[in-house]
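Researcher: Let's run the pair from yesterday's discussion. Sequence first, then tokens, for each.
Model: Starting with the first of the pair.
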Amino acid sequence: MTQTPGAVFALGLFAALWLLAGLWAVGRGIAMQRRSAFVAAQTERLASLVEASPYLPVVVRADWRIEASERLGRWLGLDRDPRNFDELAGIEQGLDRDGLEALRQAILGAQRGARVFTLSLRPQGGSRTLIIQGSAAPVAIGGPGCVLLWLSDATEGEQALADMRRERNEAMAAFEALSGLIEAAPFPMWFRDTDLRLALVNRAYVRAVEAGSAAAVIEGGVELCEPVAGVSAADAADEARTAGTAQTRTVPVTLEGERRIMRVVDVPLAPEGGHPIGVAGYAIDVQELESERGAHRRFADAQRELLDRLSAAVAQFGPDQGLVFANQPFRRLFDVDADAIADATPFARLLDAWREEGRVPEVRDYPEWRESHVGWFASAGASEEEWLLRDGTHLRVVAQPTPDGGLLLIAEDRTEQVQLAGARDTLLRVRTATFDNLFEAIAVFAPDGRLHLWNQRFRRLWGVDEARLAAHPRVDVLMSGLADRLAKPNQISIVQEVIRAATLERTQRAGQIRFGDGRHFDFASIPLPDGNALLIMLDVTDSRRIESALRERNEALEAADKVKTAFLSRMSYELRTPLTSIGGYGEMLQAGYAGKLDPQQQSYVDAIMESVAVLGRQIDNVLDLAQGEAGTLAIERAAVDVRGLLGQALADVKPLADAEGIELVDNISVDLGTIEGDALRLSRLVAGLLDNAVRFTAPTRRTGGRVLLHAEGDPRGVDIVVSDNGPGLPEAVAAVTRGERAGTPSGGIGLALARQLVAAHGGTMEVLSEKGQGTLVRISLPRGA
């Protein structure tokens, strides 16, 4: 087939065009492939960026389908990824119903009105907090009705915000508390700014400067402290700021119109490592402190002046063991000069000097003795020693550590007392020898009926072993074993009754007895001033010696009377003098003259003073009883409030009744009025009767014991009744004849002294007792003398 050139050209041109089109298509495909790969890479990168972003995008379509990454399920705590809106809520995970509904309403608002919203939701079952920001999504993302949500995890931010809020609240509360404390402080406080001008003052400052308000003080720059030596308050604050530490000064200040001494403190305030932000200050009134210091100095001077007047030698050592004070007796006794005090000579060096002068005891190991005595400064309590010096001086040395680490040293010269004690021992030996060589048989019985003293003639007369007498038997036990020595054994009761009359009734009785061997004896019992009874037995067998025996007996009785008088006077002195010394030293210890006592030491001193008081009352009772027996008992006459007296007696015996488990009952009339009498002795009378009733009832009635105090009055007088439900006296007659109850734990005031005191006041006393039913004591006192 033959083709024309035109056809060949057209065919070639078409093929060329086709080839060009193919080449363009291939190039275009390659470019599109490269573009697709770039877009895919960009898409993957964007997806990674979105996945790594703290924000999670969520698309909610118009049909409520959800497009989101897998993180949405993890953030909500769901087991699977949600695909529609309702799957965002679960039973124990995801959003709760209220949160889901709030989110639904916000999405509806964004769909309808294109409103932007922000919600804070907390999924169930966790502590995560999600912030959801939503708005209408661009049409390119999901079409009309789509909403784009951005979720962010705000858990850490919310926690940090909560911590900051809490810290802020705590700081504000602390600041308010501190401000309230400063405002309520009873002393002036202030704050100066960086220019050292007043910026804050409290109410005490305002009152001190007598200003109307804190604002007026700050505005007027009213200073509390006046310039002293050209230094103003601001200058002092500037010095504290420059020094960087608190500065203290004591200046006179006028407070509310009164001149006072104040201690002013300026404190520079600056953050750690920063520049000062101001200076705070406060002022404390030390007027009373300075006054007390002056009073303390005056007291110390007066105390040292008093110590100089004491007879006892007293020295004070400081915490450094140096001598700081010594009174005149101490200087004389230990030959201490003024230079030793001025130089504060150590205690150890003084001991060495005293040893050379013979003012300390001679000991075998002096270094050890010296070290132990230096240890007095560190001891827990007082130390007491007896020093026998080589010149024969006897010293009683007491070392009391003081609270400040020092030592109070007291030395008492007891040489004369030791000599008197030796003389007393000699006198006792002379008395014993005198008793043993007397012609009469003599025995002394104590108030409780026990044999106290006897001579050898008494022992030989009754034929009793020394060991039996040394056991100090009671008179009834002793005499019951001696009845067979008498011609008439029943006469032994006469001896017992005579001794009982002297010890209990304080009356002198006499009698005669005949022994089985034919010897006749006159005997008598004599009450002694100390409460004992003296039994004297005289052999009157030989008729030819009757006159001589009577004369000797008369002389013996006169001597016994003198001995009794001297014995009463001597024993009163012997008892009262050491008792007064004990009480005096006890009061000094209580008053703190020997230093502050710890609780245990205080209890010891209190026990000593209580025993001194008890012993003093017992001595007074014995002396009153002796004076009453002698008819020399002096009664003071004054108006006595009977009700108050009885109330005080009940209060005094109440601790004993509580300790013994005894019920104490009172039935005191309110209109007792007053009587004329001795208040002190009447108080002891009632207290003694109550004490005896409690003590006598307690051993027999551990439960149910009861003591009654009854009192009533009329125009003529007052009747006082003390009764108990104890075992009662052995027989009703004994209640009249005996002065005290036999077997009571404590003698108390005694019925004998009570009867004498009542009689001295012009009254009467009646004692009624029934065995097993108790005892009743009735006292009737007239209004006047």
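Model: Moving on to the second of the pair.
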Amino acid sequence: MAMGATLPLSRHLVSLVALLALSQAFSATAQTYTNVTQGTILTPLGSTNSWPSPSGDFAFGFRALDSNASLFLLAIWYNSTSPQAIVWFANGHNPVLAGSKLELTSDGQFFLTDQSGNEVWNPGVSNASYAALLDSGNLILVSSSSSSPLWQSFASPNDTLLPGQTLLPGSSLRSRLTDLDYSEGRFELLDQKDGNLVLYPSAMPAGNLYKAYWATGTVDSGSNSRLVFNESGSLYLALTNGTQMAIFSNGTYSTNDYYQRATLDPDGVFTLYVYPKSASNGQQEWQVAGTTPPNICTAIMNDYGSGACGYNSYCVSNGDSGKPDCLCPPNYSFIDSTRKYLGCMPSFAPQSCERNQTDSFEFQPLAQIDWPLSDYELYTTVDEDQCKEYCLSDCMCAVTIFKNGDCYKKKLPLSNGRKTSSFPGTALIKVAKSNPSTPQPPGSTAAVEKKDRKTLILVGSLLLGSSGLLNMVFLAVISVNALCRYGNRRPIKPESSVPGMNMRVFTYGELEQATNGFSEELGSGSFGRVYRGSLTLDSRTWIAVKKLDRLLHENDKEFMNEVRSIGQTHHKNLVRLLGLCNEGVHRLLVYEYMSNGSLKSFLFASERPHWNRRTKIALGIARGVLYLHEECSAPIIHCDIKPENILLDDNFVARISDFGLAKLLRTDRSHRTNTGIRGTRGYVAPEWFKNAPITAKVDVYSFGVVLLEIICCRKSLERGVGNEVVMVLTYWACDCYREGRLDLLVEKDEEAMADMSVVERFVMVAIWCIQEEPSLRPSMQKVIQMLEGAVAVPAPPDPSSYISSIR
């Protein structure tokens, strides 16, 4: 791990360097720029879809994706290069369509909304007087009351650093998934607070980090160490003691002559790219000027994960550039050639363990190839023919490595594959023979058809010598038999999508395979059981499959109409419906998978969640319910708002699930008969049990109870904690409000105790929501306004009258 020469600095100079790094936000504003004022809007297809920097070197705005020109990325890019390299982006995981807009509002809010008006990105800044793109490529938001930026893109990097940018302790770069997919990828460059700069592979989609594959080795060098890409083009780790450790050993390129960027590429290589500003400095294209690590193929070696390339593939270093290439073994092919990290799969049927197939397979040799961590058996002092024989007679053996008289047997999937010139062994890949005369196994379709044909020919020969009538009968039988066989063999081809919607129709077999036979149950409820699955081998495509039972609508048309209504709802606080299965007796819905589980498990865990996160979740739920009631094309009453039906995505954003399913449930299993006041009175509005009209106000009631649970981090019914008033959360909260003891609701919650004005506001809103009389409950629009503090919350009716009326 040669890091280049170290250059000691004086203490005073070190302090000055650190001060300059910390104050880059202040110095950035001294550069030339053009203010983007309040009220400015950018749209993907509008006359104004980007802002240039004063020099024109950079631009900020909407960029159409190379992989799909109808999708747009909000990004910053080099505007004078070809190609125009993107150096920062806001919505990599969620590109938007035409009709989206970026707005700096009159009150200083700065945010991106999609074509439906849903917020996609927000830097969390208010009161911004103006925005500007500096000549350094740094986008800043500034308040007139402060000389330093409220927010800047340099402080929120994605995969790239630019000259003048510093990666502070605790910050990181994250690679893209592929060159064309801007979602978070498989590698991370982390400036650790212990002073060590480290490259890690990560597990997708959970994001946990595996063992490092490169590091500066500067652990305990000081918590103030930082990665600096200075304005002159030098990239180094500035240690607390004043030492500078160069990251690339290829020297420094002048920023006067070259555009530069340091990018953590999708292949895991941290790469310095340079682009000559004039032809006199060389061909004007992006060139690799330095890579770390020098050879990622051999750098990564982990017990978990696939390595530098995908499973069953192997990595080859591409000469002096240091960039890797991923290849498949003979008779294997990429699962997806556009996403090679998914790995390779055999292009033949693997050897069966149920019958002897040794004559149907052979070996293809690959010199200098190894998968070093996939061994499960070793034979010593053997020759290559014996090694092949041992693997051929073992149905689990897919590859064997023969090296200096040793034979290593390996089974799929293979990980950490690499080609190394110094490796003395040969990989022997077991593949199916391509001999078309290979006998068909007994019971196979081809063998059965061949036998049937022989039988028909024999019978036909006998009948042809008989009467004409028998011949006619024989021909008719053959025709009917052929038609039936054709009908039985024709594959069922389900429609791939619901007309007019971005929703897929699955076969039951596809979902059975995707869920591994419905083996991993996530939960169950009134509507059926939910299972986790994956549509492909890509770990980024987790899904949740809900098996519906006891349906009211058995008619296909009615079922499809109801599901189509659900599928037309799109909001950031709703779980998205991806597809369905409507095959025979099977009715299944396929949703996006929420990695952080339910609100129930989040709230009632051993450790109390942060207060600020809880308030954001409460507002997210309210916005989702408002959308269902008033904003979607066909208004929906959820009828079952409770923590189990509130899921949390990767960023702990609240997402409501199971909306619209009440219409699909059989009448004999509806809430009206299935729910008792004692069992779920914490969520069910009183009108359910009075034969009163059911309106959207039942959801308002349920939201009020969930809001109290979010405030208190306790369940609506907590047995064994005291008398009935204390056991039932709604009773207890009303008593605490009446007696002026709201502190009891958030006891031992220091964050909430420090924010009692918000606690009081939230509790008052909740009490309004759980009024027995539906007409007294506010609309969800009013609820949101009160929660946000946009309107005052009037004192709710006397809680004592409420309690006595429902007891």
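Researcher: Give me one sentence on the second I can quote.
Model: The radius of gyration is 32 Å.
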